[in-house]
């Protein structure tokens, strides 16, 4: 699949007003159970936002290099000061007293299981942690709690997580030795799930109370559990098992307290460049969209899938272009509010930034054309392989001599017809995005803003290169950094 040439099916010309009125006013007629309203985007005129979360500043610090992240409106790195963070990730030791056992040693922390830990003490420490990590109560961004040791659903604690079931049962048996194993397990399940619910809900409530402008949610939630591609290679559909969806429904209390959802769409090496990868991601994102509509609210929860630019089980292999479509492209077409690119190394590739530019600008164009900039474009049929891509016949990506990347062109009537036939609008809360006539789209240069280069920057890059190349090991590292992404210093890229 070539994302530069989106598939098109040319139908007969029909009345524009009828098309736009129909797709904008009746998404439920198409079998879409989601509400017609969605949470407004974090940024103005940014229906689909790309968030960069990686320690790319190390190349800047060590070698004076800067990555081209202009197409990522929200940038957060592990070593950036809190005031400059757009995304805050709270790991197990960074938010309160998270009860858990060490995965390998079995060491107990804060009681081990939630029913053995003090919620009051946890919240007391969590308040200090939030103050430190998010100093301003006016800042907007993503607040992601990454607690992965146990799951709030009893039956989802398997493999190495069985320790939480065993210790919960032991606590019950210690109180009453007359109980049978079945009876003790039944009581332990209730106690564990009630304590887990209190820990998670109170943590979210504290975060929302202290920093209401942040979008609070738990990493990996919801999960689809569609991992059966390893077992049923030929018949893989990507669908979430019915039991998994039912258990997600049981977590309604979690979705009601969350203000955003952060599912994972990491691809394994087994799924690379395959149709199964597309199905895997599609159903995971769609399940998050379904879950986001469960709470009784006037608008659905925004979904920000987490993705990587490498295979999670082969971190030396970057994703092929088709898998950028299968992850980022799928997320945008299904109506996600954005995508979070997470990395723990310098896994930045030349194809990522152009594709992010393509998708984000196509999402803006569709929102402008069909939704009056007051809604987000979503596939009419979520099972279809229709994507928000700029038509290469109408737009072209151009890199100037200074390295600035931009998309230049204008949408043709054919482009607008394709969008109106394949996509519908979900209006932002409190907005009316219904169009009754075809908008006039003038010639527009979609360019990303970035500071202009100066001659001093180029000279500094050349001097640094000469110096570092004298040291073979560090010189090779500098060249590696230059090849990892779209770097401002073209001198490095030329010589490396």
TrEMBL record:
Signal peptide: 1-31
EC number(s) from the headed UniProt entry: 3.2.1.35
InterPro entries in the cross-refs: Aldolase_TIM, GH, Hyaluronidase
Keyword Signal included in the entry's annotation: yes
Entry-linked Pfam families: Glyco_hydro_56
Catalytic machinery residues: 148 (proton donor)
Gene Ontology MF terms in the entry: hyalurononglucosaminidase activity
GO cellular component: acrosomal vesicle
GO annotation, biological process: carbohydrate metabolic process; hyaluronan catabolic process
Disulfide bonds: 224-240, 366-377, 371-425, 427-433
Main enzyme class: hydrolase
Glycosylation sites: 358
Family membership: Belongs to the glycosyl hydrolase 56 family.
Protein name as catalogued: Hyaluronidase
């Amino acid at each position: 699949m070539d994302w530069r040439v989106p598939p098109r099916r040319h139908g007969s010309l029909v009345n524009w007003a009828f098309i736009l009125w129909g797709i904008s006013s009746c998404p439920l007629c198409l079998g879409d159970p989601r509400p017609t309203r969605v949470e407004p985007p974090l940024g103005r005129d940014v229906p689909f936002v790309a968030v960069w979360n990686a320690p790319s500043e190390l190349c800047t610090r060590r070698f004076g290099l800067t990555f081209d992240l202009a197409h990522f409106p929200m940038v957060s790195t592990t070593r950036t000061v809190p005031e400059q963070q757009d995304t805050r990730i709270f790991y197990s030791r960074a938010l309160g007293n998270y009860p858990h056992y060490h995965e390998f040693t079995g060491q107990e922390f804060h009681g081990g299981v939630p029913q053995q830990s003090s919620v009051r003490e946890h919240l007391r420490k969590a308040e200090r942690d939030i103050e430190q990590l998010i100093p301003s109560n006016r800042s907007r961004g993503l607040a992601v709690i990454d607690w992965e040791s146990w799951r709030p659903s009893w039956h989802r604690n398997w493999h190495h997580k069985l320790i939480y079931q065993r210790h919960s049962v032991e606590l019950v048996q210690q109180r009453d030795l007359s109980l049978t194993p079945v009876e003790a397990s039944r009581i332990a399940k209730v106690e564990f799930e009630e304590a887990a619910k209190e820990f998670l809900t109170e943590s979210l409530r504290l975060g929302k109370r202290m920093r209401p402008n942040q979008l609070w949610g738990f990493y990996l939630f919801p999960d689809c559990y569609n991992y059966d591609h390893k077992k049923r290679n030929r018949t893989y559909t990507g669908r979430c098992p019915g039991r998994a969806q039912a258990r997600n429904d049981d977590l309604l209390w979690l979705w009601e307290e969350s203000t955003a959802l952060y599912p994972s769409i990491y691809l394994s090496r087994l799924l690379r460049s395959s149709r199964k990868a597309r199905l895997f991601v599609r159903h995971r994102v769609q399940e998050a969209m379904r879950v986001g509509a469960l709470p009784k609210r006037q608008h659905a929860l925004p979904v920000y899938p987490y993705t990587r630019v490498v295979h999670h089980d082969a971190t030396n292999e970057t994703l092929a272009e088709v898998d950028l479509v299968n992850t980022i492209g799928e997320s945008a077409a299904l109506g996600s509010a954005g995508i979070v690119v997470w990395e723990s190394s310098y896994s930045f590739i030349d194809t990522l930034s152009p594709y992010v530019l393509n998708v984000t600008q196509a999402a803006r164009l569709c929102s402008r054309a069909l939704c009056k900039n007051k809604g987000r474009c979503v596939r009419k049929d979520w099972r279809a392989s229709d994507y928000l891509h700029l038509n290469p016949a109408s737009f072209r990506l151009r890199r100037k001599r200074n390295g600035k990347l931009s998309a230049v062109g204008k949408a043709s009537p054919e482009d607008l017809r394709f969008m109106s036939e394949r996509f519908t609008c979900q209006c932002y809360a409190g907005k009316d995005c219904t169009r009754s006539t075809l908008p006039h789209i003038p010639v527009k240069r979609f360019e990303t803003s970035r500071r202009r280069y100066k001659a001093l920057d180029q000279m500094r890059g050349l001097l640094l290169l000469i110096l570092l190349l004298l040291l073979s090991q560090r010189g090779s590292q500098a060249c590696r950094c230059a090849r990892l992404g779209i770097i401002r210093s073209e001198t490095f890229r030329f010589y490396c």
